[in-house]
Amino acid sequence: MSLKNRLAPLALAVGILSLVAACAQEPGPPANLVPNAVFLPSVSTGVAPLPVDFDASNSADPDGTIVAWNWNFGDFTTGAGEQVSHTFTAPGSYTVKLTVTDNKGATGSSTTVITVSGKPAAPTGLTKVGSGCCNTYGDFSWNAVPGATAYEVLMDGQVGCITDHSATFPGTATSGRVQALGLCLGSKYNVTIRAQANGLWSDWSPVLNITL
């Protein structure tokens, strides 16, 4: 076999490898960059009820466009739009979060804190959900108060074991247990709850009459 014929397969293999390498080195499409969420509140502190305007027009996407602006106001409510208004009806410290979405689905977010002063509203919906022993306890649930940092549940003994007992729970709680020596199954209690925000306690809620 001539030298030319012997080298032909080698030349073909080298050509194929060169083509594969060239294809492998072709750059793919650039990665989608995350949009930048920027917003300004009209005020950051005030007395309840506190209306606040939020402007996210300075938000930007470095390689596309922003197509959605979604808001979480930190008080169990949400909103949408580049410019929105929201009223904080109860005292508390609220972390407001803006999430922006670009035309390729990437998201970016930022937050700010709105501080609303004043005494919080008393919790509603206080309900006995269970009891038992030992030590004897009562389990209760209630509706959350926006901005609350703590709750206190008080059991005032009326018939039977008449000593009073209370327990404090974090502001994220919507249920809790009052458990202590001196509580008695079968005794009657007046139960009430209050909330704390900005260092101030609300009035006590209407009394719930229970038999433990």
Could you describe the 3D structure shown?
- The chain is mostly beta strands and 212 residues long.
- Helix content is 10%, strand content 46%.
- A hairpin with a 2-residue loop joins strand 14 and strand 15.
- The chain starts with a helix and ends with a strand.
- The model has no long low-confidence stretch (mean pLDDT 89).
Primary descriptors:
212 residues, mainly beta, Immunoglobulin-like, 2 domains, five-stranded mixed beta sheet, five-stranded antiparallel beta sheet, 1 helix, 10% helix, 46% strand, elongated
Order of helices and strands: HEEEEEEEEEEEEEEEE
Low-pLDDT runs of 5+ residues are: none
Write out the strand line-up for the largest beta sheet, numbering strands in chain order: 2-8-7-4-5
What is the CATH homologous superfamily assignment of the largest domain?
Immunoglobulins
- Backbone structural class: mainly beta
Q: Determine Rg (CA atoms, Å).
A: 31 Å
**What is the CA-CA span between the terminal residues?**
105 Å
CATH topology-level fold name of the largest domain: Immunoglobulin-like
Principal-axes geometry comes out as elongated
